[in-house]
Amino acid sequence: MAVKDLALASPDIAWGERIDDKFAGQHGADTPRMVVAGIPEGTVELALVCHDPDAPMAHGFTHWTLYGLPAVEGEIDVDAGRPGPHDDGGIGYVGPFPPFGHGDHRYYFWVYALARPVIGEPSRDAFLHAYDDAVIEQARLVATYSR
Predict the structure, then answer these.
(1) Is the dihedral of CA 142, 12, 26, 110 positive or negative?
(2) pLDDT tens-digit profile, the chain (147 residues)
(3) Residues facing 144 on adjacent strands
(4) Cross-referenced InterPro entries, in alphabetical order (predicted)?
(5) What is the pTM assigned to this prediction?
(6) How far apart, in whole angstroms, are the C-alpha atoms of residue 115 and residue 111?
(7) Residue 15: CB partners within 8 Å, gap ≥ 6?
(8) Closest to 54 measured CA to CA, from 1, 16, 108
(9) Which of 37, 73, 78, 106 is at 20 to 30 A from 114, Cα to Cα?
(10) Is there a contact between 144 and 104 (Cβ–Cβ < 8 Å)?
(11) Alpha-carbon distance 86 to 145, whole Å?
(12) Phi, psi for residue 27 in degrees, rounded to 5
């Protein structure tokens, strides 16, 4: 795992804190803003993934995949990327929606600095498998949500 200077933050989501309802599935699912810094040399593009490993499914639940993001520091322009699939059968961002009474779920927002561009809009699993060798560095922001 490559971890050095790359950093991911959000003006909407604080590390380790509860995600605000306005970003959740039952409340409209506004897309949270993400900010990236420390992009390593050689980065061709960025990819963004949000995943809930606590979802009661074999491989958790992917809420967001976004590919083809310019390797530019600052707030990520989600309109500049290509939205990929989430595990609810659509594309783009789908907000947290854990089962009632299931407790806190952790939501991992990952940014990947890539040495080669992502072709198409793969699922999270397909992306991680096909581009593992292209990851120069990665960073995460982790927050929680429960209903």
Answers:
(1) negative
(2) 566 899 999 999 999 999 999 999 888 889 999 999 999 999 999 999 999 999 998 899 999 999 999 999 999 999 999 999 999 999 999 999 998 888 899 999 999 999 999 999 999 999 999 999 999 999 999 999 998
(3) 18, 106
(4) PEBP, PEBP-like_sf, YbhB_YbcL/LppC-like
(5) 0.94
(6) 13
(7) 9, 141, 142, 143
(8) 108
(9) 106
(10) yes
(11) 18
(12) -125, 30
Tokens for 20? 């605000």
* CA distances to 26, 76, 102, 107, 139 from 56, in Å: 18, 30, 9, 14, 25
pLDDT tens-digit map of 124-135: 999 999 999 999
Q: How far apart are CA 49 and CA 128, in angstroms?
A: 10
Domains of the chain in start order, with CATH, are 7-145 (3.90.280.10)
Please tell me the distance from the alpha carbon of residue 19 to that of residue 47, in angstroms, as a whole number.
Answer: 21
